[in-house]
Each structure stands twice: as structure tokens, then as C-alpha cells.
Amino acid sequence: MAIVERSDDELVELYMMRSGRRVLGSTSNTSIDGLRSLVDTLDSSLSVVPESSHAPLPSPGAYKHNGDVDEGILHVDARGIVEEAINSSLSSGASRAAGVLKLGLLNIRIRTSSGVSSEDVRSYALLNVRSFRDGDASGQGLTLSTTPRRLRPDIAGSTAGEYAERASKNCEIDEGRYNLILSPVVVADIIQYVGWASSAYTVSTGFSFLEGMLDRSIAPESLTIIDHGQIVDGVGSRMFDDEGVPTRSKSIVERGSLKTYLHNSSTAKEFGSSTTGNAGLIEPRAWNLEVPPGDSRLEEILREAGRGIMVTSNWYTRFQNFRTGEYSTLPRDAALVVEDGDVVCSTRGIRISSSIPHDLSSIRLISKERMWVKWWEVETPVLAPYILVEDVIITKPW
Amino acid sequence: MGIDDTYYLAEIAVDLAQKAGARYVEARLQRLVGRTVTLRNGVPDPLDFYDSLGLGIRILTHDNVLVFGSTNKLSRESVEDLVDSLSSAGGTFRGLGRLDGLSREDPAIASWSVDERRRIEDMSLDGILAEAHMLDGTISDVGSQLVNRWFTLGSSVEEKYILTSEGTRITSRVPRILVLAMLTAHENGRVMQRFVEIGGSGGWELLEVLGVEDELRVEALDLVEVVKKAVGEDVSDIDSVIVGPEISGIMAHESIGHPFEADRILGREAAQAGESYLSRNSLGMEMGNDEAHVSDDPTIPHSYGFYLFDDEGVRARKKRLLLAGRVNELLHDRETAYVFGVGSNASSRASSYDREPIPRMSNTFVEPGDYRLEEILEEAGRAVLMESYMEWNIDDKRMNQRYVGLKAYLVENGERRGMVLNPVLEVTSDKLWPSVVARGRELEFSAGTCGKGEPMQGVPVWMGGPYMLLRGVKVRRR
What we know:
The structure holds 2 protein chains of 2 kinds. By secondary structure, chain A is of the alpha+beta class. Chain A has 8 helices and 19 strands.
């Protein structure tokens, strides 16, 4: 089964502010009439809405594109990339493979009444491969970049195929507390929630497990989390945020300590802080998150884990309580049972039941190896290592 | 520009694709217009207006490749470009995947809409703000334990025009209301949260029809009661669980609705939302006892997942998915129906003009039974009653699932005793449905936005059921 999709869309977002009153609108009708209609709608609304906390739109800054874009991305041999991934998967142990290749070109223009006028062009290439073998055994492989020239469909396919083969050596484990070796795919899921919880809007709505934690230790000193406005291969890169502030790199977590929330001008005013160049007009958000490499090789981490589980992928993370960060998530694909550095089998039907503050504070080792992750479960791109987290609860259904 | 000003573009798309040799063409113009008010602890965020209109085109090429494309540049030239590029993309991918046809369905010519007593567009902005503040106020009045409120009131109108090369021509209009609230309560160092989602199809009268004000007040009171009273009761000896309508509904959705989507069974979602515990040969398979009945019905008045024709132009009807414990019917679009050798049951939905229509749920629910709630409580013996939940998830084959209760009670001798803190029901689908021994008479629904597809498509659904007694399942605490 194959489906080919193509979309070509334009959208205009308009933010209007007058006398402390603010409204926001968007339209896909970018004709003069369509824009006039949007302006009229918002303008008439301004007289109705109440005043709210706000900050003036920022003045223009110095914008510099990092040059990481491939404007020819839509003309590559997409079929060739897909076939290479499938063939690599099948030759690495899979009996069948599924997946998605996404190629896109994004043109963003901004103009504000405070004098900002700029344009940004970005490209993305995302390939997700899932391989299957012997019914329930499966594995996942990812590759992503800002250009298909740096995609590695061969590695994504072979990784998925090899994990599927390993997953076919199934074994049962008991419920209990385990040391988990989280693969970059799983680390990215957790880190994206740290990015979300660091948004000042998330904090102000009572959703954040990072509320009240500024300048406090939330993880060992080995953990730093950086948000990059622009970074090579970061498919969330932007030169300016939605208020026209130049984006930049900043540490959200530095040596284990929470250093900043992410702000736009309005949340910065609300929190008595400064914008971090992360607007969202309503909600500040992370662009590309990076966990810098640790000191350990993956083999060392596997040895240090003792009896542990290497979780290669996960899905369906849901929270019992956003404020405390209590969640559960389901390992999927290969979940490799490790004993003294050796993978002895793969287990199924397990669930991680934990909290993100526990996970962060229980990090023991971080790998030198890293990869970019963004896929169906991870919306914010994350450059993630393998991480050894100690003493995490694993449950199973009855 | 109204959607009817763009109908001619659908005609152009169908004509051009047919001339290019397409075996089947479906052009869908879809517009979504809406307004959302968000209050943070009673203070409004900027009002949000949105208006999207575009054209989605699906073509089964003469090479038997299924291609889908969309644009919101609504001109003859951009539609011509889109059809050209889709036709050539079909050629490029010839042989990589193949679809030999679509199920045969009678072409439909229809115009349908949801009844509105108070049209969505007729409510003034003043009126919407006043409603939002009034509803938010019902939460804030509950008590000082409620320390955080995030509240939204959204209204939207979705219009479609569907035209196919087989002669189907359908216009529709669905107005909707959606209320979301996240409540946070504190008491003696304990913090607990509740997410509330109430939605339906209709005009502003829905606020009354759905009892939004009362429900928000009850939810807020319940959360305060939970944060004050829930205790870590030992429930490890218990093997009977009563789930309320909210939980029987999410069970129907996650454990029956999703795995019964025929495209998942065929592997269409394998790398994203996953596959299914069912196979192509599962019709008739026993997976529950006689009390296990789950249906999907898009035609329920006021429902959030309401429609009368699906996005392939097939007339909607109720589907009895699980009938007396047996797999009775899957959710099909014309693509999967062809592969299975059956007719479509009108389950094809697209969340937006730029999304391909695929098999989806609408309003999925456990059918009501014969029991009064008091009888179920009596029948249960020593049991845990789980009325609401926060955390839930299920594996990507839809077997291993978990529901963590929020408002929950210990039940003994037919009566609710104390409140239980965070009870966890973690069970597999093949144990869940055989464990159903009694169903209540009253059917209640909750609203949700169901995610599936790549790119992601969130579609409005209802999930529902009665109180349901499960026997032989274990429960523990988080």
C-alpha cells in the first residue's frame, strides 16, 4: 500500500493590539479581499474585548540565517530514498517494512508595526521506518535533516530491521524497578516535555512540573538542555520568532539546574523577565532542543546498567498530573533486556510508570552518541543521546 | 469569499484528472471558520479567529496508485498545477504500492446540515465573552482549593463540498461547540488535576442541551472532593471493578474502535499509530462474552462526531462493531472495503481540506444494558468504582491498556465507601471484554479529539457507555 501526498498552502496570521486589547486571527484566503475581511473582523473585535496584560511589540533585531536550507528539496528522488530504506530494512532482518518520508519547504515572512520586516526559508526531510518480523517483533529507525542529502535511509532501514530481529528473541520479565537505557527516540519524548514545561505559558496555567524550580537543581550536573533558534539539521529552526525577535541559543537546564523559562514579550512582562526569542504570540515554545553529549560510550552504559532494559522506542505518553509530571508511556518495538552489558532477549507488553522529575533526577550516564529525533510522537526536534536512568517502575497488565 | 464561490474549482479538478486518465477522482472543498476565547484564571488571552478554506483532491491513477494533494490557493492555475503534479507523482510511484480499485457505492447527491436553534455566527463577541466568563465562574465559585483554571470556549462551522468522478455531489454544514478546562486543586500539599472536554454539533443551544454549566460545576466539586478525601486504600485483594460512562467510553474507543479500523489491519498506520490485534480473518472471532457490545454511530443528534455522509460520499449508518462478544463489523472506507470484499460503511473522514480521508471513528460506545446503577453496585461485592480518569494509554496493537482513576470509590455491600487515590486498571483487550458481566441502562457520552494519520488528523468524536461491571480484573494504586 502506498499513498503519495502533496500540499501547497498559504496562511496569514494577524495580531492586533490597541489600548491594551489584543486579538489574533488567521486566514488561508490571502487575497486582498480575504485580508481586508480578517482586518475588519479583528478591528471590530478590539472594541469588545477587555484589556489584558501585554507588552509592546519588540523593535527589529539583527537577523542572520545560518544558511542551512535546501530550496531544491521538493525535487529530489523521493522514490529512491523510500526504496533504499525498505531494501536496507529487509536485508537487515525484517520481513516487511512501513514508513513515511516527509519533504517540505517553508517560507515565513513577518512584518510588524514596530518596524520588523524579514523573511526566512526553511526545509525539512524526515524519514521514519518501522520494520516487522515474526508477527509481533518490530523495530524503528529514524533519519532527519534539513536536506535529503544528509538523510541516511540505509541506516534508518537497517536500524529498524536489526531491532526487529532482536525483538524476535522474546522473553518475559517481572514487574518492578529497573535501570533503563533510554534510546534517543525515548529521551527525545521526555525532553520535549521538559521544553513544553519550561514555556512560561505552561507555568502560568498550572500545567508545569517546573513551576517554582528556577535556579534549583532538577537533574545531575551531567545534564544540560539547550534550545537553539537555529542549528544545523535542526528542522525547527527559525531566524526570528512570531514577534520578530531574533532567535538564539539558550540553556534551559545548565549542569542540572533550571536556568530559564521560555518567554515571549507578554509572558516576560508577566514574569518580570525578558523575552528569550521563543514567541508564539500566546504560548512561547522551544525551537530545537539539544542534550549535549555525555562522557560514556553506549557499550559502557550497557555494562553499567547491570540488569536493565534498553527501550528503543515509545509511544502514547499520558499524564495523570501535569503539575507533578506523573506519567506513563508504552515501550514499543524492541525493549532489550540487558545483563552486564549483553543483550539477552527482548521483552513486550511492558509500561513505564514514572514521573519526569524522577527521571531527570535519576540520570546516571549520558552517551557520547546522539541523533536527531522528530517523528509522530515527538513534535519538537531533539538532538538526543542515550541516557541511563535508574530505578524506574515497569508495570504489566494482569 | 464563501465556499460556494469555489465550487467550480472542484469541477475543474475532476475534469482535468479524468482527462489525464484517472480511474477515480474525488475533490473536496472544506472550510473551517471559528472563534476561541481562552481564560487563564478568568483573564482572557487574545481572542483567536481562524478561517481556512482549501481543496483536497484524491486520485486513483490509471496505474492504480492512490495520490492525494491539496492547496488553498484557490485559482484555476493552482488547481491545474496540483492535478498535473499529482498525475506525475502517481507515475513516479507506479508499482511501489498498488490499489486495484475502490468498493462500488451508489453515487449520492445530497445537501445536509446540523440543525441550529441559535446559529453559531449569530452570537455576538460580547455574548461569547459573557458565556465564557459565566461558565468559568461556575468553576471559580467552588472553593479556594481550586488554584488554577485554564478554560476555553470555542465555536466553529465546518462546510464541505464533495464532488467525485462517479457523480457524487454533496454539500454539508456542521456547527460545533467545544469547551475545554484544566482544573488544578491544592490541599495540604497535595495537588491534583482534572481535564474536562465537552463538545457537540449544533448551535449555541448546545450549552444547555449538553448541560455544560452543570457539568463544569460538578467536575470542579468532584476535584475538590478528590484532593481532600482520596486516600491510599489497599485494593490489591479486589477483583471487581465498576467503570463509569467516561471510562467505558474510552475503553470502547481505544480497545475496540481503533483496532477495528480496517486500514490499521492492512498496515496503513504501521509506522505511526500502529496496527491491530485483529487480522484480515477476524470477523466472527469471539473476544468477549454476551454482555460485550460496542457500536459506532455518526448519526446521533448533537454528537461531536456527527455526519450524515462520509468524505467519500457514502451515507452514514450505525455500525455494530462488537456484537455479543464477537467481531461483527470493521470500520471501512472504500479503499479498505474493496480489499476486504465488502461495501463501505461510511467511516471515511478527513479533518481538513489538506488531509486525506481515512477510516475513522465517529461516536463509539458500549451499548447500554438492563441494570440500574444500584443493582450493579449490589452485584459487585467488594469493588472499586472508577468514575473518571486522567492518565490512560494503550499499545499500538490496541491490546495492553491502562486507565488511572481520578474520582474513584471503594464499594462494599452495594454502597460507596471512601474515595480511593489513583486506582490503576491495567488490562489487555482479550481479558477486558470477557470480564464484562453487567451494563447499566443509561448511556452517557464524553467528547474527544481522536488523533490518527500522517500528517496528524484530529477529528471530533464522542466516546460513551453505561456503568459497566468487570469481574476477574485486578486493580492497584499508582
